[in-house]
What we know:
The chain has helices spanning 20-37, 50-65, 69-75, 78-83, 86-97, and strands at 103-116, 119-130, 134-141, 147-154. It is α+β, with helices and mostly antiparallel strands. β1 and β2 (119-130) form a beta hairpin.
Amino acid sequence: VAEAFSLSRPRMERRKGTGMGSKKRLAALLLCLFLLAGCQGKALPSGMQEEALLTAGREVLLLGVGGDYEAVHESLRADQQKAVTVEDIQSMALSALDGAGDYVEIQDSMVTGQSSDGESYGVAVFYCGYTDADVIFRLAFDPDMELIGISMQQR
């Protein structure tokens, strides 16, 4: 049974960045997106379980589609919480989901292993149906199952 959420899209005011702080946050967010974009089917890091990764990813995904960006931010590992703000996550989501319509269901999912800068991590990939488009969500977790990256884009 698919859970249905309607993503309410509150209007965001555009603000100019407040100097290097916002540029660094944006760079960190873009780096996460870049790292997640190259997902290919590789083995998960030692000790990571596919079902646990999918469960953790699904929980964060549903927070995001429900518009609870603060809870998504709180799900991030401490170092990532410092690099990315709630507003960064909200902006990414609103931009990626613009025109997609309302969330309908997770249509398919998979997991893959990745590594970057000597850190191995697992990525839960979800193919989601919205009323007007399909959206791919990628959620990266370290071997301790802490969220380290989020990506979403329309297919």
